[in-house]
């Protein structure tokens, strides 16, 4: 593929690109701040993921390393097309040297794809690695055709991890192991609901039977078909990956129709305190995967703050409860500072990509190193995994607490209780 970067390199090599003498020095040598691009869903149905963005960017720029950087921020508006559009703007107009992107495949995938095509290094997080890596392949259904990326790098957990966490939580309770799945027609839903590489095979290995009534569009207003299918299958457990508004609609209709599961463990929609708070008393003991909390035993390489101190500082400055993306968005800037501190010319995309690939560091979300540990060979170059636990929301005076109830895959992260059935 001829990218913008390879075109510029080839024309420079053949003398076709002209530059005034003395103006081709690296930006860092001129004392110019290094431009980072950052894309996230700051508005729209995924906006909960970006609640800590302003706080984290301000903390980064105020840190010792932050003085060397400028961060150009763009809102994907929770729209994949918009995400791609603003990524192009950041590359072509703002001339960012490194792209950072967070929060769901609808944002990470189009941005990473644009960066790969333009030859601009990109680091992404807050999306399971399978929807990120496989979702960007030309033929996601043919593993033999999958190819690694030269400029796109990702860190988070994968489907294999969430299956282990979910089943370990459910195994703490007495159920009939009948599971109902809610999978929308988007990148996450299609990956989680995939019959071969989604939840079904892993659940079956643990003795759980999954009922998948079929995909639906985001922001749907009628879940009758799904609820009827779950009733017919006598499901004790409901799972899936939903945007927050859809879970609110589903949960209301489920309760109206009298279905009373013992367990509801849902990704994405149940990550945020504000999403659970809107449910009132009905949010008690709902559960989800947990990627980061104040009790995680890690600290920031930028500020030295522990996870607990970072969460407390966010609450003090925002007046809002801590939220899981705080740690991962913060870690993006930790990695960016580390990477750019190891390159002599930040405008050399190939050198920056090589520095990303060589990363081996401790962050506030744990170790980040693209060393292939616990990652299949086909994705080992581009994917780094981070620890995953499971938790439940417990009602308290004035709101909810997220209590870790399962840590078998990450024993260094302490639990705060045991799994409880829905009342």
Record keyword descriptors for this entry.
six-stranded parallel sheet, 34% helix, 423 residues, Rossmann fold, four-stranded parallel sheet, alpha/beta, globular, 15 strands, disordered N terminus
Describe the structure.
By secondary structure, this protein is an alpha/beta fold. The protein has two domains: 4-18 and 26-157 and 295-385, Rossmann fold (3-Layer(aba) Sandwich); 160-290 and 388-406, Rossmann fold (3-Layer(aba) Sandwich). It contains 14 helices and 15 strands. It has helices spanning 4-13, 53-62, 80-92, 105-118, 129-133, 159-170, 187-193, 199-205, 224-232, 244-256, 273-277, 307-318, 325-340, 349-357, and strands spanning 34-40, 69-75, 98-102, 122-125, 152-156, 178-182, 209-211, 237-242, 263-268, 287-290, 360-363, 366-369, 383-385, 389-396, 399-406. Strand 11 and strand 12 (366-369) form a beta hairpin. Helix 3 packs parallel to helix 4. The radius of gyration is 22 Å and the shape is globular. It starts with a helix and ends in a 17-residue tail after the last strand.
The SSE order reads HEHEHEHEHEHEHHEHEHEHEHHHEEEEE
CATH topology of the largest domain: Rossmann fold
The gyration radius over C-alpha positions equals 22 Å
Task: Please describe the biggest sheet, giving its number of strands, its sense, and whether it closes into a barrel.
Answer: 6 strands, parallel
Secondary structure: number of strands: 15
């Amino acid at each position: 593929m001829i990218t913008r970067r390879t075109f510029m390199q080839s024309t420079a090599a053949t003398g076709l690109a002209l530059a005034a003498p003395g103006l081709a020095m690296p930006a860092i040598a001129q004392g110019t701040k290094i431009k980072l691009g950052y894309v996230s869903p700051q508005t729209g149905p995924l906006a909960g993921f970006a609640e800590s963005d302003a706080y984290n960017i301000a903390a980064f720029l105020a840190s010792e390393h932050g003085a060397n950087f400028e961060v150009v921020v763009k809102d994907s508006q929770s729209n994949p097309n918009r995400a791609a559009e603003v990524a192009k703007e950041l590359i072509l107009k703002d001339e960012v040297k490194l792209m950072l992107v967070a929060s769901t495949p609808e944002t990470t995938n189009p941005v990473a794809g644009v960066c790969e095509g333009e030859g601009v290094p990109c680091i992404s997080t807050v999306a399971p690695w399978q929807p990120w890596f496989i979702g960007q392949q030309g033929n996601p259904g043919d593993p033999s055709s999958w190819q690694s990326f030269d400029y796109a790098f990702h860190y988070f957990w994968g489907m294999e991890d969430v299956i282990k966490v979910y089943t370990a939580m459910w195994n703490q309770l007495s159920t009939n192991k009948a599971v109902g799945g809610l999978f929308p027609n988007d990148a996450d839903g299609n990956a989680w609901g995939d019959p071969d590489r989604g939840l079904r095979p892993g659940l079956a290995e643990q003795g759980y039977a999954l009922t998948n009534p079929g995909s639906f569009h985001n922001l749907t207003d009628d879940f009758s078909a799904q609820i009827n299918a779950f009733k017919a299958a006598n499901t004790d457990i409901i799972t899936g990956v939903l945007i927050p508004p859809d879970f609110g609609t589903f949960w209301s209709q489920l309760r109206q129709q009298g279905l009373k599961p013992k367990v509801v463990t849902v990704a994405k929609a149940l990550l945020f305190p504000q999403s659970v708070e809107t449910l009132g008393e009905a949010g008690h003991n709902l559960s989800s995967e947990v990627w980061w909390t104040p009790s995680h035993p890690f600290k920031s390489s930028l500020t030295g703050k522990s996870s607990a101190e970072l969460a407390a500082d966010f609450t003090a400055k925002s007046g809002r409860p801590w939220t899981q993306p705080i740690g991962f968005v913060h870690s993006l800037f930790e990695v960016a500072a580390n990477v750019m501190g190891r390159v002599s010319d930040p405008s050399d995309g190939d050198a920056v990509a090589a520095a990303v690939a060589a990363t081996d560091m401790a962050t506030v979300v744990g170790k980040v190193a693209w060393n292939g540990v616990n990652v299949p060979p086909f994705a080992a170059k581009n994917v780094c995994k981070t620890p995953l636990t499971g938790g439940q929301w417990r009602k308290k005076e004035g709101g909810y607490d997220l209590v870790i109830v399962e840590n078998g895959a990450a024993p260094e992260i302490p639990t705060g209780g045991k799994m409880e059935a829905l009342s």
